[in-house]
Structure formats: C-alpha cells, structure tokens
Amino acid sequence: MTILVTGGAGYIGSHTCVELLNEGYEVVVADNYYNSVPAVLDRVEKITGKTLKRYNCDIRDRNGLKKIFSENTIDAVIHFAGLKAVGESTRLPLMYYENNISGSVVLFEEMAQAGCKKIVFSSSATVYGNNPIPYKEDMVTGDVSSPYGRTKHFIEQILGDVYKSDNEWSISLLRYFNPIGAHESGLIGEDPNGIPNNLMPYISRVAIGKLPQLTVFGGDYDTKDGTCIRDYIHVVDLAKAHLCAVAKILGTTGIEAYNIGNGKGYSVLDIITAFEKASGKKLNYIIGDRREGDLPAFYADASKANTQLDWHAQYDIDKMCEDTWNFQTKNPDGIK
C-alpha cells in the first residue's frame, strides 16, 4: 500500500512517515518546505532504515500533483500541508484562505482525477469554537475565532460535500488538539523556521538560550491559574492515530470525524513547570496580553477514536517534555 503524505517533512507529517514506514507502507511525500527542511526526511529514513519517495511540490501546483499521481499508484492520502499559526492567520487571513483552502481543493480534484478517493485530513480542535468542553464530535462546528480555524472548518465542509456527491470516497477528519514532544531518538521534533508560533518550541529555545524569554499570552483567563488550558498530546501518539485512520478508510467508505487528544487539560503554567522538571532549567517568562483568536480552555472527549479506531494515547506530559528537551539539546541550531 502506498500513502501520499502532503506536508510530510513537517512536524506531525515526519513523525507519521516514521510510523507508516515502520508499519510497512510505501510512503510518498509532497512538501514545499515552507516551514520545514528536506533534511528531516533524511532523518526519517535514518530512524526507520527505509526509504521514501519525495517531491518538492506545493499542493497548489496542479501539474506537480499530476506528476505525483501519474508516477505512483496512491492508495490513500494523508493531508497535512497547510499554514497553521492562529496568530499569524489573524494578520494574514487571505494568505491562509488561499493556501489552505485553494490548495486543498486542487489536491481533492487531482485525487478524484487519479481515482484515489481515500483521505485522512489533518483538521483541528479549533473547529469547535466556543462549544462547552469537553469537545465531542457531534457538536455543531464553525463558530471559530481565527482564520486558521475557519480554513479547517471550511475544508471539513468541502470534504463533506465531496462525499455527498460521490459515495465512493472514504474520509477521516482528525481533529487534533495540541501536539508536543518529539521522537525518542532526538532526530526529529518540532523545528519551525524563524521565531516559533507554538508554545513548546518557544519554551525549549528559551531553555537552551536561543531566545531571551517566553511571553505567556494572557494571565487573566477564567482558569485555575489565569493562563490558557489546552489538551496536549505526544506527537508520536498523534502519528499513530493516522495509522489507525488509514486502516479504517482503506476498508470502508463514508466520512467520520475523530478527536485526537488526551482528554486532559493543562495550563500554560503547567507546561512550564513540567518542562522545568524535564530540563532542569528555570524558564524566564513574563505574563503578557491575551493573543487574538485564543480561547480560554479546551480539551477532548476522545472516546470515539478509542472505540472506533482502536486508538489510545500512551504518553503523559512528563514524557512530552522530556522528549522535547532531548530533541532540543541534540539539535540546538535546529535540523540542518
């Protein structure tokens, strides 16, 4: 079986490629390296002792996608490729709509043209908006607070319409919560280009002295310590959820959404404390203003994924922080 992984050199994509290769799948990666580097895929091959096929291709490049589908028999697609920073999306909404939504439409069209109608889509818990917690898959979605979240919601709706128009499609919508951690080898982890937008790589760069201090966005939320609460999940647990979803879509048709989270809420200060324990470093941080688009708290009800995908999160917050620090210390200047 051959799986096309869009955005396969990215943080979640690379860890998923490791799990796919270890499970015996053939892997084809399409990535434009906007927020990653090709060397990540070399490290995926080093970890697994297996090779993958790679294309430098933007999902908006129709001819590039045609080349991929003509040169490979793709059984299913895992679609990660997209811009993903909440704060940036509020500043640059048109860039997010054009890249995430337009690119996805091109991908879906080329999949249909090639007769490949099985896809796992990298969605987000942000689609739930201001629903009460814990989030459940049968909640009404779409009351979203950021352009990033709206792109995920719109793409879910597009895929719903695709299935309604053609019941041969098999679609899994994986609604992620907050992935952190790294592969235990320390060879791959979250390594964004430039200043990180996400909490954990920012924390780790402060701890290793690459950044002077962390700003916690908001200390006056109605939470236990005033900081935002999120459902953090180890990236390897998340990657393994994709294998469960691939197995599901290869044997069925239809469209289903699944929450992929731990089902526990941790505050920003909880993460800081756990990271200080893992690293042995005292973190320099300040409490700043709230960030536009952030919600006070959310976490998952992951029981549907537990029962229907036979997927269960294995790693706790201490392991997430330990693996992040291991990756950071082995790659102080990032992956080159």
Q: What would you note in describing this structure?
A:
The chain is α/β, with parallel strands linked by helices. It has a domain at 2-182 and 232-263 and 299-314: NAD(P)-binding Rossmann-like Domain (Rossmann fold, 3-Layer(aba) Sandwich), CATH 3.40.50. Helices cover 40% and strands 17% of the residues. It contains eleven helices and 13 strands. It has helices spanning 11-22, 39-48, 62-71, 86-91, 93-114, 147-165, 199-207, 235-250, 268-279, 303-308, 317-330; strands at residues 2-6, 26-31, 53-56, 76-79, 118-124, 170-176, 178-180, 214-217, 229-230, 232-234, 254-260, 266-267, 285-288. Strands 3-2-1-4-5-6-11 form a seven-stranded parallel β-sheet, sandwiched between helices. The protein has a two-stranded parallel ribbon with strand order 7-10. The chain has a two-stranded parallel ribbon with strand order 8-13. Helix 1 (11-22) links the parallel strand 1 and strand 2. The radius of gyration is 19 Å and the shape is globular. The two termini are 31 Å apart. The model has no long low-confidence stretch (mean pLDDT 96).
CATH homologous superfamily classification of the domain at 2-182 and 232-263 and 299-314: NAD(P)-binding Rossmann-like Domain
CATH topology name of the domain at 2-182 and 232-263 and 299-314, in short, is Rossmann fold
Write the CATH architecture name of the domain at 2-182 and 232-263 and 299-314: 3-Layer(aba) Sandwich
**Mean pLDDT reading:** 96
Q: In terms of structural class, how would the helical and strand content be classed?
A: alpha/beta
> Which of globular, elongated, flat, extended, rod-shaped describes the shape?
globular
State the helix count.
11
Instruction: Report the biggest beta sheet as strand number plus sense, adding barrel if it closes.
Output: 7 strands, parallel
Strand content: 15-25%
Helix proportion? 40-55%
Output the helix-strand order: EHEHEHEHHEHEEHEEEHEEHEHH
Give the distance, in angstroms, between the N- and C-terminal Cα atoms: 31 Å
- Placed side by side, the strands forming the largest sheet appear as 3-2-1-4-5-6-11
CATH class of the domain at 2-182 and 232-263 and 299-314: Alpha Beta
- List the uncertain runs: none
Counting DSSP E segments of at least 2 residues, the number of strands comes to 13
Radius of gyration based on Cα positions: 19 Å
